[in-house]
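Hi F.,

I've been meaning to write this up properly since the lab meeting, where we talked about keeping a consistent format for the predictions we share between groups. The idea is simple: the sequence comes first, exactly as it goes in, then the C-alpha cells exactly as they come out, then a line or two of notes. No screenshots and no reformatting. I'm using this chain as the first example so we have something concrete to point to.
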Amino acid sequence: MKQKIPELIYKNYSNPFNNVALVSMDWYHTLEKYLWLILSQKPICFGDFEKNSIPKRPGVYLISDIRNPVNERVMYVGDTGNLRKRIYIHFMGKVTNSPSIRYLVHDSSEGGITNYHDARKFMVENFAYRFIECKEDWEDPTKLCGFIEAYLIAKLKPLYGIYKEK
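Output, unedited:
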C-alpha cells in the first residue's frame, strides 16, 4: 500500500519559508530524512557530468559551489518530474531556460562571468550536484518532491532561485 501525504495547511504557497504547518512529527521526520539523504551523498562535479547516469524519474536536486569543501554553498534547489532532463538543462541549457547559467551571468558577485560560455566553464570548475528520487511507494511522488524541495529551500537557503528572482 502506498503511503499517503498528509493534508497540509498552506498559509502562503508562493513563499516556501512560511508555507507549511506540519501536522505531525512523523511528517517532520520524513522531511528530515530526505534532507539528510541528499546531503549525505557525494557531490557529483559538473566536470564529471554523465547524462545517462541520472534517472528519468521524479526527484529533488541541489546544485552547490564546492570551491570550499569544508563550507560548501548551496546555490540552487529544485524538484522535477524528470531528473535527467532538468539537471541536463541546468548544465547544457540556453541562458533562457538554464537557471544556473542565467543566475551566474547576471550575478555580479562572480566577477568576470558575462556570457553563457564563461558560466558553463565556471560550473564545470566549481559546481556539483546531488539528487534523490521521490519514492514510488508514495501516493503522489511528484507532490512529495514539491514538499521536499520547499523544506530543503527553507533549511539550506540557496543563493539562487527564490532569493534572486525578481
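Notes:
Residues 115 and 135 are 38 Å apart (CA to CA).
The first helix runs from residue 25 to 39.

If this format works for you, I'll send the rest the same way.

G.
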